[in-house]
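Thread: quick sanity check before group meeting

JM: Hey all, I'm pulling together slides for Thursday and realized we never actually wrote out the predicted structure for the chain we discussed last week. Dropping the sequence here so it's in one place. If anyone has concerns about the input, flag it before I start.
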Amino acid sequence: VDSVEDRLVRLPKRAWKKARKAYRYLIDETSGSAYNQFLTSHASFLRRRQRDIESDSSDEAEWEEEENRAERSGRQSFKASFLAKVFSSVIGYGADWRLAQFVYDLWLWSSLGGAKHCGGVSLRGALAGKNFSPTYWQNMHAALVDVVKQIGFPSLFITVAPWEPSAPYHAWLDDELGKMLRTRTNLPAAETFHLAHLLTQVAEGLIAGTNKRNLKARHRCWREHVLAAADGKTDTVVEIFGRLEFQDGKRKRYAGPAQSYHGSGRTHLHLLVWLKNMSALDWPRVLRADLAEDEPEMQDLVAGSQLDYDSSAWPLHEGPTTFDSSNGRISLHHPRKAKAAHVRAFMPDVIAAMQCHMDVQTGDGRALLLQYVASYAAKFSDSFATSWLNDEASAYHLARRILTEYHPLEPEMWLQLGAQFFRQVIATPVMRRVSVRCPWTSQVGIWETAYMECTWRDEDCTLLQYIRMSNKDSFYGQWLILNVPFRDIDDLWDDRVLRVPEGYRMLALCLLHRPGLWRRPLEVKHELQLEGYRDAHVCNILAMLEGHTAVIDAYLSGRLDLQHDPEPDPGSFAAPELGFRGALDPEQAVIVENIREIVRFSMQRRYPDDATVEDLQALMDRRPERGPQRPLCILGPAGSGKSTCVEVAIKRAAEAGAHVGVACPTGVLASSYREKFPDLDVDTVHGMFLLHKPEHETWDAMMPFDMAVIDEVGQLSEEHFERLLRLWDHTERRTVLVFVGDFHQLRGI
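JM (edit): ok, ran it. Output follows.
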């Protein structure tokens, strides 16, 4: 074993001088340090014989017994014990699928049950740190949005998808494969952890060089990474933000062996990179999109991994690769033959080292952000995800529901178990989750108090700048407190907002304090684009903001007043059907009330069951009201509350005695509705309206229903949609026909 002096000699000259100075100080008796005593004891210990070192003395045995007793009296982690064995020199623990499944289920069950019974903490808050929770990824998205707001859109969007048969494996991994008599892809734990570590180092080290950015010791920083400047001195990489994902099979095309990896659960990397001084990079060396016909080995790699089935995503360019500093665009050498072969852009150094597929995109930074966000944005409105946040459900119901419906593939299971060692999010910024309360609704929080009492900040420094994250009117309150500077929380108040209904007051304060932003749709649009929203959602938000602003202006100007134009009764928003969620939003309440009125009209025109002569005469004499002339369409993006208000409307219609039918394009969706409404008619669209039969045999298929709900209308073909409208016409449009869906989420099938 080398001594400390021997190791000091091998250090670089600059580091050696500092280390020698520190060493001399520590061994000096006047320093008061115990390092010299430790050094003497350590040297004496290493001079002992090996068998003496390995033998247990009575003192050591007594200490070990005390330690064991302390461990027995504390909490034992089954997952930690299992992972310790997986990472140990004992082989086999990470290769038993049944054992891994048992440990994963037990850990997930215990985590959910413990979070459920954690006193004083909501289920959402207790699970916020678990990477299987929707809240965790909401926090990661918020962090990404904050990065974009601070430094702008990313410059590059990089995908790296390794393939186990060709990926570089460490010697210990090959050794375990040999001893277990297994081939690659059959050692899930070791291979998953190895690939996760490999992708992390590819992102932080090989591509960006951000794993060593010691600005005080420039000689220790990475200077030969892929995105390094040609001169080796100029800084180019500002930040990176990436995520390890898993091949779930959504894009599998069954087009031969080249597509077989889809659906396998393999780990791959999506990475956003922010660059500066882009002209300092040697782009012809860094990025290519040709067939490499003059390099046989590279040509084989490109032919085997870079040919896309659809498009290369780069324009045709026969000239050399150049960078235009005026518009910040890369003109990549992409000849006609490569364009025809759909060659995806690649970094030669990366695919040469990883022997894998990769893709590099640049250009419109907003498009890159949208593509990255779409890869992990979950739909939090569906019934499964809301189960994670249901504080009223029993622990058994919650665990059973998730364990039976949540089906991660094996690599994802292993990375969740080993999350403390292998993180799924790769980011250079420091992320901290901060929850800001809406002002005047509760006690002032710790961050707000520290901000108001801070003496070193400027007067125009906002709370958001001080700590460096929400819908409903509380969003505007949070925005107000984060982006408008104040010395006291009451500095933000304006008595004029007392003329406005309570639900609009926070937006009114934003309009009064920052009209330059909230009264300019283009500025608001730019802010929404920075948060990664698509155009359809941006248009919806702008339209909503325009309507709310008009209402607020009417109250502020005196055209409306609370005495003659009061805000709606809070009871009209009450929805006991929602349980823990409590109430509907105003837009949801309008939809539910509209459906209730149309259902009432439909039931008035319904032919009475077991009718007497008097009942039939009353039906004939009743003056008919004008019925609906169009179906009711409830459309909106994921998480907007469509399903919630429709479910409330269905329950209220059924309680009023209406005959309600729910039809879905798929059997899986129909099964979920059947679980919620076991007493209603729930079926697929084909089964309920007999679309498999000739149309003339199905004219009466819709007539028994007072209300028919068609979910995921975007999946209906044009032929089936028009046939449903003809069936509705045959009922004399008595049936309340409700279409629900999101055309931006699912296309017709």
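AS: nice. The longest helix spans residues 535-557. The mean pLDDT is 79.
JM: adding both to the slides.
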